C-alpha cells in the first residue's frame, strides 16, 4: 500500500482557490479510499492504480474550467504496510511518549 | 504568516526512519510554533525566519549521525492570514457542508 | 500537455541509490516521451495517461527489489501549451536578456 | 553541501507568472552560488545558510507585490559531496553508458 499526499490548485483564478480544493475533496471523500485532509494537502492510502485514478478524477474536473493547474504529489510505498494514515502518527507519539498536535 | 509543510528523512539508515522523525517532532513540539503532524509531514505556522530556524535545527540534529538526508518543504504564504492550521480545513468543510476525515 | 517532474528513490538500500535512479532513466529514455534530466529529478512532457504510465513503470520496476520507496511528483498543466521543456527556460532568459546556467 | 531545488510562484497574478520567476532567477544568478535552471525549478548548490538566504531574498522580493505565494523546496544533503550539479547527471549517464537529455 501507498500513502500519497496530493495538493492541486489552479493558477489564474485569483488568490482564493478554496472552491476548487473543495471539489477535489468531494471527489476524494466519495472515492471509498481512506484519506486525511491536512492544511497543506490530502493524504490518501491505497494501491497505485486506485489512488492515481482518484487524483486523475480531481485533475479532469479541474481542467474543465481551469487553464493552468499546479499539482504536488508525494508518495511513500512500504511493502505489506497498512493503516499507516493513523499508524505513522501514533508511532511517533509512542517514541516520544506523549501526544502531539495532529488536528 | 506562512504555512510550511516539512518532511525530512535520512538515507542509509534502513527502511525504518521513525527514530529520526521522532527527534524532529520533539524539536518542533518544543519550538513554541503551532504545528500539525500528519502521516506525510508536519505543517508549521509562523513567519519565515521562525519556521526556517526550526527546520534548520531539525536538519542540524539529523546531520550529526546521518550522512545523507532528503528534505521536502512546501510553503504557502498569504498576506495577513492567521490561524490557517485549522482555518483551511474548516473552510473546505464549510463549502461541502459536512465533516471530512482529518485525523 | 503537462510538465511533470519526478524523483523516485528507495529507502533501505544505503546512501547511494544511483543504480536505482539509472533504471528509471532507462525506462523514461525508452518511453518515447520527451524529457530532461536534472540533478534533482526528471521533467517529462506529455498527456496525463502517457506520463503517469511511465512513472508507474518506474515504480513497478523499483518495487521488485525495494521494500520502501519515496516518490516526489510536481506537475504543471497548461491548456494548449507545448514544447515547454525548452520554452519555459528560454522565456526566463528572454525576460532577463541573458543566458542562464541550465546544464 | 546541499542540492536544493526551489520553485516559487504567486497566486492571484493570472496564469502567466514568468515575470515573477525571472525576478527570482535574477537574484539567484547574481548570488554567486552555482545553480541550474530547469523547466520546473532551479537547483542551487551550497551550504544551508547560503542557499536559504538566497531563497529568502526571492521570497522577500515576491512578497512586495504578491499577496499569496506558493513555494516548493526539495533538498538533498550528502556529507562531503561537491559538484553534484553536474556529478549526479553524469553518474546516471555513466551507468547507462549513453548520453541522456539534459537541456
Q: Top keywords for this entry?
A:
3 helices, four-stranded antiparallel β-sheet, alpha+beta, homotetramer, 4 strands, globular, about 100 residues
Note down, in words, how this protein is organized.
The structure is a homotetramer of 103-residue chains. Chain A has 103 residues and is α+β, with helices and mostly antiparallel strands. The first copy, chain A, is 40% helix and 31% strand. In chain A, helix 1 packs antiparallel against helix 2 (48-63). The two termini of chain A are 24 Å apart. The model of chain A has no long low-confidence stretch (mean pLDDT 96).
Assembly type of the chains comes to homotetramer
Helical fraction of chain A equals: 25-40%
Number of H- or I-type helical stretches of chain A = 3
What's the order of the H and E elements of chain A?
EHEEHEH
Q: What's the count of strands of chain A?
A: 4
Strand order of the largest sheet of chain A: 2-3-1-4
Secondary-structure-derived class of chain A: alpha+beta
Tell me the major beta sheet of chain A. Answer: 4 strands, antiparallel
Q: What value does the Rg of chain A take, in angstroms?
A: 15 Å
Tell me the β content of chain A: 25-35%
Average pLDDT, all residues of chain A: 96
> Which consecutive residue ranges of chain A, at least 5 long each, have pLDDT under 50?
none
N/C terminus separation of chain A: 24 Å
Silhouette of chain A: globular
Q: Which chains share the greatest interface?
A: C-D, 39 and 38 residues
